Amino acid sequence: MSIHEFDSIGDDGRVIAKATHLTKKFGSFTAVDDVSFEIEQNKIYGFLGRNGAGKTTVMQMMTAQMRQSAGEVSIFGQHPWENPIALGHVCFVKESQKYPDDLKVKHAVAHASQILPYWDNDFAADLLRDFDLPLGRKIKKLSRGMTSALGIVIGLASRAPLTFFDEPYLGLDAVSRHLFYDRLLADYAERPRTVVLSTHLIDEVSDLIEHVILIDKGKVLLDADSDDLRESAFEITGPTRAVDSFASGHRTLRRTALGASARATIDGRLTDRQKSDGAAVGLTIEPVPLQQLIIERTTAEPEEAVS
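^ that's the sequence the OP posted. Answer follows.
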């Protein structure tokens, strides 16, 4: 079976990768704990969470860089371990990728073009110019940001149907990071594929990602479309009595006093009628930004609903 004949194989035509009860132990330490999720074709996913949450370990198991202790991994309907057909659909851009000491930028790009079957040389050349990467320089002589940019070039130019970026912009300045986001979005719009972006810089990528998988302490805390998440919690600000009355019966993630006013983050959807009623008593009701919502989910102890 050729790699191109393999393109349409998946669980239901949409799911191209999945983890089922995935677990990884290092001795007595459980880095990934009974994780299950599905990845669909032609979406941008955010693997979000704090450093050390288990994101990299999950991606390493998904891409056959590491064996799981328990559970199953499926890539395009196949087990990826020692499966070059399945892995031919995948590009994994690792954090702090290591290269041989004498390898130059041009050698890394040439090697990628030979092993990645969907590689686009013209796109790679454009990206190398965009990031001002010196082709003749040894990679060990590059700055950390330039090394990250090289990984970005390879990941984007791979045009792999499933591309994993693990914290791809370490050392990049803000301008270069946004250049990456712009190039990713433009290419995704022209040639849709599935991109999994692991990051803790949630605010910067919140407008890119279409689906969030939040990992914390080795467990999946959230697995939802970004738009659904943005409608799943609201911040209520106004007179203390009005805030407490409105929040009554809702699960409150956080409440703070502001003199005669209060602010509460409530967990749950609001109807248009509820929003109108809140506004009528002087409340400001706003969706919670994705970054703040992720922080609330991973750090805040839910309070009891105000009664």
